[in-house]
Each structure stands twice: as C-alpha cells, then as structure tokens.
C-alpha cells in the first residue's frame, strides 16, 4: 500500500523484489489488521538485497527530493539524488551481513518486526512510502544437556500423583512424552488435561505487565483413575503457533512457556500443577 500525504492518488507505484525471492522460503506473518500474508524468511547476518522499482502512474513525471530505502532499526541507503521520474526506474539495494539478533515476534502486547521502508521525498507534494515486511528466525543447536522433569504433587490424604516429562527443553516441532502416575486417589476425578501456556512479560519492576495465553489443551484422561494407574502423555507441538523462549529481549519483554496439568473432580473443582519448559528453534530437520 502506498501512503501519501497531501495528494488524492499515488503519483507512482513502488514494488520491492528480493534477489532470491522465488527460491527463498516464505512463512506466514499476521498483520495488525489480523490478515495473514506470506513473507520471505531471513536469518541474522544474512545479506538482504534486491531491487526496488518505481513506476510513475500514466507516464506522468514525478518530481522528488531523493529516494531512499531503510531497514528499520538498522541503517539507511540513499537510492537516488533529487530529480525527476518519467518512466519506470529500478534501484538495486543491499544490506550486507546485518546483525538481526532478535526473532520476529507477534504477541499480545509486543510486536517485534523487521521492515524495509522505501521513501520518495517530494516536499510539499507529500512523501510516497512503501513498506515491505520480512521475517527473521534464529536457529539454535540442540542443548548438550536436557534433563527430564519429575515431580510429585498432591492434596494431603486425598490425592497423590507423580508426573514425568521426558525432557525440559523442546524444539518447536518436537513431541512431549511423559507419564502420570496415580499413587493415591481418594477424590473422584472427572477428567485431566495438559495445557501449553505462554507467558509474555513487558516492562520491569513494579511496571511489569504479564499476559498468559493457553495455546493448546490436550485431554489426557476422561473418567476416574484408580490407585496404581499410569496415564501416558504424547503431545505433538508442530500444530501450534509456538516461538522460542525469549529472555529479556532488548530490556523490553520476555516470553516463557509452561506445561499446565489440570485435574477436574466431579464437583468441578480444579487442581493445577505448572512446570516451565524451554522452547528453541532447531535448524536441522527434527529427528523426533
């Protein structure tokens, strides 16, 4: 979309083409209006290059005070000195090995984005601006140490369970495996679910604001368990829109993930046990 100030219609059309646009992987990106579009995927320190084409409408000339492209938050490149455009003109651009240390993220109160911004400065006529989104993902090798999670929880003289997850760190396409052991059951349990929750924290100190979303809800059991019973857990993560765990990104926000075990008894009383896990993006094809 072209944004124009002080004019009724655009004087020209701007298009951005990446050098390897046809071959580069495309991923979905949700815009502010809720619409999802496919945009190119980059990694930190990759070259971002391509061409920008400017086409005057109906062959009319476009007077301008210069054309530039910005990789917002990083650097600006001047594409053309002040002059006039009578016909289509294409400008190559390149941002070489730019460090983009943080991943693209769309949360409840936070949006971390990377954008190419093309500006045709026109003084009193109003600038013409075009935005091109792209996504940045940063891959992490598998952790060298990834211990399992084992915990015992219960209500005195009423309920005693032990749960076990196969590991504490998962890649985004991983599978959560585990078991729930019922050591003591003296209340009538109706059902049991496992939830994946994302906790987004913004601000710091007394100004910290926390939002928690339930991203997945998986039924583990329907019916009353008995003492000694074991319930298996097998939850595939690939269907859900997960991100890596983020710790204090640019001193602005953090994102954590939790496995939340929920038990409901026949009187609809709910019992919870929450366990934090770490999520990461695996570069190679997942093996599990």
Query: What percent of residues are in strands?
Result: over 45%
Strand and helix order: EEEEEEEEEEEEEEEEEEEEEEEE
Return the structural class: mainly beta
Largest sheet: 7 strands, mixed
Using the alpha-carbon principal axes, give the shape: elongated
> What is the overall pLDDT average?
87
Oligomer: single chain
- The poorly predicted ranges are 1-7
Total number of beta strands: 24
Radius of gyration: 26 Å
Termini separation comes to 42 Å
Number of helices: 0
Question: Helix content range of the residues, please?
Answer: under 10%
In short:
This protein has 288 residues and is mainly β. The protein has strands spanning 3-4, 12-18, 26-30, 36-42, 48-56, 62-64, 67-71, 75-80, 83-85, 89-95, 105-106, 111-112, 114-120, 128-136, 149-155, 159-165, 169-171, 175-185, 189-202, 209-222, 230-236, 246-249, 253-265, 270-280.
Notes on the protein architecture:
The chain is mainly β. The protein contains no helices and 24 strands. The strands form six sheets. Strands 1, 3, 4, 7, 8, 13 and 14 form a seven-stranded mixed beta sheet that branches. Strands 17, 19, 20, 22, 23 and 24 form a six-stranded mixed beta sheet that branches. A four-stranded antiparallel beta sheet has the order 15-16-18-21, with no helix packed on it. It starts with a strand and ends in an 8-residue tail after the last strand. Residues 1-7 have low confidence and may be disordered.
Provide the fold topology.
Blueprint: E1 3-4, E2 12-18, E3 26-30, E4 36-42, E5 48-56, E6 62-64, E7 67-71, E8 75-80, E9 83-85, E10 89-95, E11 105-106, E12 111-112, E13 114-120, E14 128-136, E15 149-155, E16 159-165, E17 169-171, E18 175-185, E19 189-202, E20 209-222, E21 230-236, E22 246-249, E23 253-265, E24 270-280
Parallel strand pairs: 4-14, 17-24
Antiparallel strand pairs: 1-14, 2-5, 3-4, 5-10, 6-9, 7-8, 7-13, 11-12, 13-14, 15-16, 16-18, 18-21, 19-20, 19-23, 22-23, 23-24
């Amino acid at each position: 979309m072209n944004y124009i100030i002080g004019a009724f219609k655009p004087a020209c059309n701007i298009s951005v083409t990446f050098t390897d646009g046809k071959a580069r992987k495309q991923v979905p990106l949700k815009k502010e209006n809720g619409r999802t579009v496919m945009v190119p995927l980059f990694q930190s320190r990759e070259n971002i290059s391509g061409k920008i084409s400017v086409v005057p409408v109906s062959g009319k000339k476009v007077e301008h005070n210069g054309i530039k492209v910005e990789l917002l938050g990083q650097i600006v490149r001047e594409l053309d000195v002040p002059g006039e455009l009578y016909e289509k003109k294409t400008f190559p651009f390149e941002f070489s090995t730019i460090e983009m240390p943080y991943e693209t993220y769309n949360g409840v109160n936070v949006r971390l984005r990377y954008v190419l911004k093309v500006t045709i400065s026109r003084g009193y006529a109003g600038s013409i601006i075009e935005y091109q989104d792209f996504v940045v993902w940063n891959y992490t090798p598998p952790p060298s140490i990834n211990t399992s999670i084992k915990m015992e929880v219960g209500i005195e003289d009423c309920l005693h369970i032990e749960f076990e997850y196969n590991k504490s760190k998962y890649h985004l396409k991983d599978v959560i495996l585990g078991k729930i052991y019922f050591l003591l059951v003296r209340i009538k349990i109706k059902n049991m679910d496992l939830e994946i929750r994302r906790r987004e924290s913004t601000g710091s100190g007394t100004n910290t604001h926390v939002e928690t979303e339930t991203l997945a809800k998986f039924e583990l059991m329907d019916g009353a368990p008995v003492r000694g019973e074991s319930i298996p857990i097998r939850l595939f993560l690939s269907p859900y829109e997960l991100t890596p765990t983020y710790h204090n990104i640019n001193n602005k926000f953090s994102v954590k993930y939790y496995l939340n075990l929920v038990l409901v008894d026949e009187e609809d009383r709910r019992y919870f046990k929450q366990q934090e896990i770490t999520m990461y993006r695996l570069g190679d094809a997942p093996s599990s």
